[in-house]
Each structure stands twice: as C-alpha cells, then as structure tokens.
Write a structure and sequence with these properties.
This protein has about 400 residues and is α+β, with helices and mostly antiparallel strands. It has three domains: about 130 residues, no CATH class; about 60 residues, no CATH class; about 190 residues, Sandwich (Jelly Rolls). It is about 35% helix and about 25% strand. The strands form three sheets. Strands 1, 4, 6, 8, 9, 11, 13, 14 and 15 form a nine-stranded mixed beta sheet that branches. Strands 5-12-7-10 form a four-stranded antiparallel beta sheet. The protein has a two-stranded antiparallel sheet with strand order 2-3. A hairpin with a 2-residue loop joins strand 13 and strand 14.
C-alpha cells in the first residue's frame, strides 16, 4: 500500500471537503515571508554584501505590520551595525504605520522586551521608547529597574531620572543617596556631575578609582616606527612578563623600563613628558594587576595615536590610526584576568606629522567590567624600593618614581 506524507494527506483531505484549509501547506506563508525578510536583512554587511536584496526585504517586512514588530526587534544585533540599521528603520516604519492606522502597539510585549537583557541594547532602548510613546507612565515604573542595567543608554536615563528625584526630595540623607547613585554611573559627564554634587553636599568620591584607571606603570621607549612600520614590529617589550632587561631602541639607544605615576584623575600618561618628545616612535607601558579570582574584564584605552593591547601575552586589540580624535574609551580589548597576577602591556605609537594638533602622545588605560564599572582589583607597584599593592585607580604619590605634575 502506498504511503502518503502528512502534508500531502492534509492537502487532499482539504480539497475533498472543500474546506478553507485547502491552503494548509501555506498557512504560515506570512510568517515565512517575515522570517525570510529578516534573514536577508541580517545578512547585510558594512562591505555592501546583501544591499541589493535588502530594499525589497525591508518593504516586505514593513508590509507585515504589527505582527512583525517584535520579531524585528529580536533580530537586531549590535555586533552588525549595518544590518541593525536596516532593522531599526523597519521597526520605526512598522510602528508609525500601526499608529497612523489607529492600532495600538503591544505594550506588554514591548515592556517585557525592554526588560530582557538577552536582547541587543539598541533594540531594548528602541522598545522602551516605543512603549513610552504609548504609555508615558512606564518611565516611572521601569527606570528604577535600569539603574544597574547593561545597556548604557537605559542606565544613563535611569541615573538622570533618579538624580532628579533625589534633588527634588532633598532629604537629610541626600549625600548618602548621591553616593549610592554615583556607583551606578558609567558616562564621564554623569560621573563628573555626581562627583560635584556629592562634594557640594560634604562628601568626596574618587573618579579615578570609580573608573578603574591604571595610575602606575612602567614605561619604555622610543623604538623606531619610521613610516609607521613600528605598529607591525613586535619589539621585545611587547611580550614582557616583567620589567627586567635592557633593549636597543631608536638609533641604537640603550633602553630600560622606568616606573611612572600619574596624578591625573583620568589616568593620563603624557609620553611627551615622561619619555621625551619623539616622532616615528613606539613606546610600551606595563602594569601588573592582581585578581582574587578568574575575572572577565575589558581593558579600555584612550589615545590619539595607534595602540595595541596585550593581556598575559595575548593580543586583545589593535588599531593603527593617528590624530583623528581621542574619545573616551575609544579602544576596547575584552579578556579574562587569571587568578593572581596579570601583566597588561600597552603599545602606543606616534607618527611624524608636524601640525601643532598632531603633537600629542599619551594614553589613559583602565580595567573594568562589561558595563564600564569598577572591578575589585589591585595593582602592584614599587614604593620606597618595596613592592606593594594598591587599589586600582588609587592616586599614588611616591618619592622614588617620576610623576606627572599639572
């Protein structure tokens, strides 16, 4: 006896009955079209791959209306900003069309989505904004939950919201309330603002410790980087595990590691001051960080010139770029600190541009969690000839090392 597969049996049975389910094999066609459109848009890359198919897929997706809203939000991936941009505009178009047609957005689903940390931060923020456009009361309900959120934008809104409440209430505990709120801050401007308000209310906090800046480092340089070649040359200090040894530097100069402190609250090491003003050069910084247990971390660096970041001999990040601005935390390497001592080596290059604005040669480096918040770490330093441990970000002034004076 011939056997029929299930879809075929359903199809024939439907035809025989004259039922509306005659199209049973295609009953999910709308859902399938949404899935195909999302797959196409997610495949778009910054190199232009997939752009030809993206336009028609976008139109198909938007045409599906409200049913495609949440799936489109779920598809947004911060790791691919090009496809994410296509998907965000699709979300905006779907929401606008639904509103124009007098249909409400699914508030409960949007709220659940905004609260779920498994989705992309940009998508969660978009869901939150769509929810607010329909339910302004969600602001007071949700923002307190976002104070310690991994999304920098949601956290920022939550801090600003809570600060307004604290200042409006002006309770006797305002200093303690501000200090507690300070622990949730991550953005530089909000950190500065909260630190100032705490000081105005009789308190004091350390911006350097809050950000986890490296304030003590051994430096060595310059090594040759004529025509930018130094970025690709692994000079011996690149794989250093300690500060022992002497090396041949630029023009065969004998180089050795030297210890330096910075008293800058943002951990700035001015290499022009510490090592001298050099062009076409490479310098290295080494810091020893101690972790009580294995700890995922981010090493974030601010520099106006090319950098490479190494953790325990493994390269985490590199960018060969000069004098295009130095935004805070522009360079980021993700790694894992091992239990005990960890050696961080930073390579900082300088080119030969002669313009006045191209003379800066510096770095700021910090170790933090994936939200930019502090980790419980210590840094090994030499004080009066003895090795000591200090809290990461602690401003150390010692007579036996050089300091940057403002």
């Amino acid at each position: 006896m011939q056997r029929w597969n299930c879809p075929a049996r359903r199809w024939i049975f439907a035809v025989a009955l004259g039922s509306a389910i005659v199209l049973a094999p295609g009953v999910h066609s709308a859902e399938d079209e949404t899935t195909r459109a999302l797959t196409t848009l997610k495949a778009v890359t910054k190199e232009g791959k997939g752009n030809e198919d993206a336009g028609p897929a976008w139109k198909t997706l938007v045409s599906k209306g409200g049913s495609a809203l949440i799936p489109t939000l779920e598809a947004i991936d911060d790791a691919n900003p090009t496809s994410a941009n296509w998907l965000r505009t699709a979300v905006d178009a779907i929401a606008e069309n639904e509103t124009s047609a007098g249909r409400k957005l699914p508030a409960d689903k949007l709220e659940a989505f905004a609260k779920s940390t498994k989705f992309a931060a940009t998508a969660r923020r978009l869901a939150y904004e769509l929810l607010l456009s329909q339910d302004p009361t969600a602001k007071d309900r949700l923002l307190p939950e976002f104070l310690n959120d991994k999304s920098s934008e949601l956290r920022r809104d939550a801090v600003a919201h809570q600060l307004a409440i604290v200042e409006k209430l002006a309770k006797p505990t305002i200093k303690a309330d501000l200090e507690k709120l300070f622990t949730f801050t991550r953005d530089k401007d909000q950190v500065e603002l909260l630190a100032k308000k705490i000081e105005e209310n009789g308190g004091k906090v350390s911006i350097s410790e809050h950000f986890g800046f490296i304030t003590h480092a051994a430096l060595i340089g310059p090594f040759d980087s004529t025509a930018g070649k130094g970025f690709g040359i692994a000079y011996p200090p690149e794989s250093a595990k300690d500060t022992r040894g002497k090396f041949k530097g630029k023009e065969n100069a004998e180089l050795k590691w030297a210890a330096f402190n910075t008293t800058d609250k943002y951990g700035k090491f001015d290499l022009n001051k510490f090592l001298g003003k050099h062009k076409d050069s490479v310098a290295y910084a080494l810091a020893v960080i101690v972790a009580e247990k294995e700890t995922p971390c981010e090493i974030r660096v601010t520099s106006i010139t090319s950098v490479q970041i190494f953790l325990n001999g493994k390269k985490l990040f590199g960018r060969d770029e000069y004098h295009h601005g130095a935004p805070f935390d522009a360079h980021l390497g993700k790694g894992t600190l091992q239990k005990g001592e960890n050696v961080i080596v930073l390579k900082v290059c300088q080119n030969n541009q002669t313009e006045e604005w191209a003379q800066d040669w510096f770095f700021q480096m910090r170790v933090c969690d994936d939200t930019g918040g502090p980790l419980t770490l210590t840094q090994k330093v030499m004080v009066n000839g003895k090795e000591q441990s200090i809290k990461l970000g602690f401003i150390l002034e010692s007579p036996d090392v050089k300091e940057e004076k403002k």
